[in-house]
Amino acid sequence: MKQLLAVSWEMPPLSGPRAVQVTRTLRELSRLGWRSRVVCFGPRSTRYNQDYHVPPDADGAVRLLRVPSPEEWLVFRALWRICPAAKRLPDEKRVWMPVALRAARRALASEPADLLMSFAQPWSDHLIGLRLHREAGLPWVAHFSDPWVDSPYIQGTAWQRRIWSRMEHDVMAAATRIVFMNKQTADRVMAKYPAEFKRRARVVPQGFDASLTPAVPGARRPGPLHIVYTGRFYAGVRTPDAFLTALAILHRRAPLDGRLAVTFVGGAMEAYQRASARLALSAIVTFCGRRSPNEALAVASTADVLLVIDAPSDGPSLFLPSKLVDYLPLRKPILGLTPSEGASAELLGRLGYRTVDPSDAEAIAREVDRLLQSPQPDVLEVSERHDEVSGAYDIRATTCAFEAVLREALEARQSA
Predict the structure, then answer these.
(1) What pLDDT digit, counting tens, does each position of 48-60 carry?
(2) Residue 376, CA distances (Å) to 112, 349, 373 in order
(3) Closest CA to 208 of 406, 11, 19, 396
(4) pLDDT tens-digit map of 347-376
(5) CATH class belonging to 211-393
């Protein structure tokens, strides 16, 4: 088997999207002849969401090298509170780098690897990968789940952005291959780099694991139209505010009680729950709180329509939420509140589903009303193109594409 040494701060028992996605990919890689060791964070507290039902390995072919981090120490948490800028060079995981590097060096000393891999965010993972690549001389693949310097979610001072830009450039200059999850992000990030760098960039989307899909009810049950959203929000950037306003508009025109039920699954939604109450939507909108990935899928499987909410964007949106991909095996209609150009809109368009400007409450109200009022049964049916398009996002297909990139990196090393 080929030997892979990876760096991914977020792995089980942490249960965020990065941990879930990397676990799925490495599990599938084991079936393609790869044995993986992963240097990852070993939590010593309950500060982070943890789910011990996320399987970390596959028949011993994935081994987690858990490393505690000083980020849990009180001294650093106090420092970051006093000086928040110190937390973003590039992120709070920077203090984990020395111990993670030592663990990675021990792993390489005990058993050689054929290839290095780093998964980010957090961006410190790539700085660890860069250091190991320089020290060991092994081919290195840097995987970007999101844009770094180009992310609209990341705000910083001019001097911070100069530091981030230098860090990102160093990663791009050194990585044997660079992997992005969608073309929009790849195009935006690589636009500022020379052709030599661009030739090393590849696009491999995230994938869903059909084996984890809960049983989906057959015929629709009588009752209110059920819309489900799973995932997180980011205050001031990606929020359900316009959607809740749209529901309030419809509710004032004609009461939605008994006609519509909306469920939000995700943590840190207290502010939106209060906003929903102020809009007199408490009888219609339910906030379930955070659930494990499998529990969130189970709730989503009860929906008539699944909801995607992206942040507004002046240009093409760079983000394809992992939850949108996780929705695909459920074979449900999807309503996308997303910019008309971007990764989500492109996928939803190929699937045959509608999108609405995420900041236009009136337009969202019209679309929800269409779902409520339409006499056409196919409005609540899965698209005819759904299965064909979704197949490319099956974790087996995405991992085959990913493995091809790993082999490219190995061949590039051999031909150098």
Answers:
(1) 766 655 555 544 6
(2) 61, 20, 9
(3) 396
(4) 999 999 999 999 999 999 999 999 998 755
(5) alpha beta
Kindly write down the DSSP assignment for every residue of 127-174, as one continuous string: HHHHHHHHHH---EEEEESS-STT-TT----HHHHHHHHHHHHHHHHH
Q: What are 165's two structure tokens?
A: 């830009």
CA dihedral (204, 209, 210, 215) positive or negative: negative
Comparing C-alpha atoms, which of 309, 374, 343 is closest to residue 145? Answer: 343
**292, two tokens:** 């494990």
Strand, coil or helix: 259:
coil
CB 142, CB 184: distance < 8 Å:
no
Side chain identity, residue 139: P
Q: Parse the chain into domains and list their residue ranges.
A: 2-207+394-415, 211-393
Cis geometry, peptide bond prior to residue 112 (ω within 30 degrees of 0): no
For the chain, first and last CA: distance in Å? 23
For helices 395-415 and 17-30, the axis angle rounded to 10 degrees is 70
Please give the DSSP secondary-structure letter assigned to residue 221. Answer: P
Domains 2-207+394-415 and 211-393 share a fold: yes
Domain 2-207+394-415 matching CATH 3.40.50.2000: the answer reads yes
Q: Are 402 and 179 in contact (CB under 8 A)?
A: yes
Round to whole Å and give the CA distance between 151 and 164.
11
Q: What CA–CA distance (Å, rounded) separates 149 from 32?
A: 34
Bridge partners of 7? 39, 118
